[in-house]
Each structure stands twice: as structure tokens, then as C-alpha cells.
Amino acid sequence: MRILRAPAALAAATTVALLLAGCSGSGGAPAAEAAEQESPLTEYFDAVYGGDLSPEEQERQFAEQQEQEQELVAQCMQEEGFEYTPDTSSSTFYSGEDTEWEPDDRDWVAQYGYGAVNSPFTEQPTPAEDEYVDPNADYVATLSESEQTAFYEALYGPTPTEEEMAEDASVEYDWQTAGCQGAAQHEVAGEDVSQSEEFKPLFDAIDAFYGDMASWPGMAELDAEWAACMDAAGHGGFTAQADAQNSVYEELNALYEEMPTSEEGISAEPDEAARDAIAEREVQLALADLGCREETDHRDRTAEITREAEQQFVDDHQQELDAMKAAAEQAGE
């Protein structure tokens, strides 16, 4: 299975959203109201990624697109010389609306920390009746090994070479090399503005903007106050609030990278005691972090710093952002 890389601009914007959601403030009502105001860049990201739709609208759109895509895939595969049964159950829409994510709540943090090792999402069991059954499995089983390889290359595109993979084994998505599946998704969804060469300079600028958060006016002072609080709490060594959470993910990733794999490439389960130890340290660190965020009014101050920086970015790139938004809305029609 290939791991596809999301557009860096989306990842950066998501990081900022999580940062604001995960920072607790102790300011007065005006500051709290300010923290809930919409980002100046929201309308542009919503246009590109569909964030302005309700969960019900997203689910309905997802189902309709899945049905259209699978009919196109079936036609394409038939043209490639294969049988193919449309598969509308291979992907499931999940909005996460019913899952509590409360990184500002002390009881929640005491249970999950940052939600890295344990989280409300991982605790939700998958109903047995939802177990996936590939409608093409029986047909594929009748094919020879070489025919099966050809079938999946026609469906998903050729397996990428090592040179085409990034260090994390992910691959930049290109619908033109993603077989019948990629062609169908492209036809149904239209041109992906985030992957367009026309707007690449703008997305590069967005990436650079979010990657330089530490230089935003007021952020260095806030980071220094938070770091001093963490040091006093016995958790020194961090220079920015996001570093604390990232340290947990880095430790968890290292644990999984150390796991042995079988000849079939299947990884063993991580050592439960080691995983539990990381979870314990995660909770202790997250509770200290929460206390320091409360002490420094981190959430509201970060929200205001971010809003001002984003507004300046919008002012500096208004023409390009408007053109991107118009192109995204046209593609979605």
C-alpha cells in the first residue's frame, strides 16, 4: 500500500488549528471571544478542501462521489481487459463529530495526554458487520500472479520505485500515474487546485509562512514564557509549545521503527510495557504543558498572534488567494 503525502500547506494549516485548539487560555471574555473568531485564511482553505460543508453534506457528497468514481473505474478496467465490480464500501466517511477531543480539559489530559498513545479515536471499536469484503477478491483469485500484478497496476498505477519515494516511504500523489482509480477520482472531483502548477508558488508561500511561526511578532516572547514555566515544572529543554507534543510522537515513532518485521513485511506489535511507559510520560508532560499554557494565557495570545500574522499574509497575497479560491469553486461546480 502506498502512503500518499497530503499537500504541505494543508498540513501546516492543520497544525496551526490543532495548536490553537490544544492551548488553554485564562483570559477574560473579550480574549476568549477573540480566540473563537475565524481565521482570515479559512475561506480560502474551505474553498480548496471543502471545509465549509456540514458533516451531513460531506457524507452525502462522499457517497455520491464514491458511486460515480467506482462506475468510472469499472469502465476503465473493462477497457484495460479486466472484470471489475464497483466497490463503494472500500472507503468509509468519518467526520469525528461524535468523538470528544478536549485537550483543554484537565480530566481529559489526565487520561489521554496529547492523544498520541491513547485517544478517544483508538478506543472506538469497529463493528463486526462493518468488516470490509473486497467484491473483486474472488475474480482476482482466478488470475495468475502476473495477471494479478497487471490488474492492480491498471487499477492503482505502477508501484513507485525507491527513487520516487520520500524518506518516510510516502509518494507525492499524481492522478495521471494512479491508474483507473486516479483517473476516476480526477474526473469526478475535477482539477485539484492544491496540486496545480499555477498555484504552486502560493502554496509554497503558505508552507513557508506556517513554517516560520516562531518569527511571528509576539511569538518568541510567548514561547520564552511558556518554556520558563515548563523548566520550573521539571520539563525543560523545549523552546516552543509544539515541541512538547512533538517529543511524544518522536518517541512513539522510534518505538515502532524498532519493531522487527516478518519475511512478509508484517510488523510485530510494539512492546506493551514500553508503550505504556511512553503513555505515562506523555500524560505527565501534557499536564505540565496544560498548566503552563494556562499560566501564560497561551491559547488566546497564540490565537491573536496567529490572526494578525494571517491577516498580514492575506493582505500581501490577496490577488493570488482570490484567484485560487475562484479556481477551486469553479472546479467544484
Structural account:
The structure is a single chain. By secondary structure, this protein is mainly α. The protein has helices at 8-21, 29-35, 42-49, 55-79, 106-112, 137-141, 145-156, 179-189, 200-211, 219-232, 241-257, 272-295, 298-316, 318-331; strands at residues 3-5, 170-172. It contains 14 helices and two strands; from the N terminus they run βαααααααβααααααα. The chain has a two-stranded parallel sheet. α1 runs antiparallel to α13, α2 (29-35) crosses α13 and α3 packs parallel to α14. The two termini are 32 Å apart. Mean pLDDT is 82; it is low at 1-12 and 17-35.
In brief, what are we looking at here?
Helix content is 57%, strand content 2%. It has 333 residues and is an all-alpha fold.
- Give the helices and strands as they follow along the chain: EHHHHHHHEHHHHHHH
Shape: globular
Number of strands: 2
Query: What is the terminal-to-terminal distance?
Result: 32 Å
List keywords for this structure.
333 residues; mainly alpha; 2 strands
Layout: helices, strands, pairs:
Elements: E1 3-5, H1 8-21, H2 29-35, H3 42-49, H4 55-79, H5 106-112, H6 137-141, H7 145-156, E2 170-172, H8 179-189, H9 200-211, H10 219-232, H11 241-257, H12 272-295, H13 298-316, H14 318-331
Parallel strand pairs: 1-2
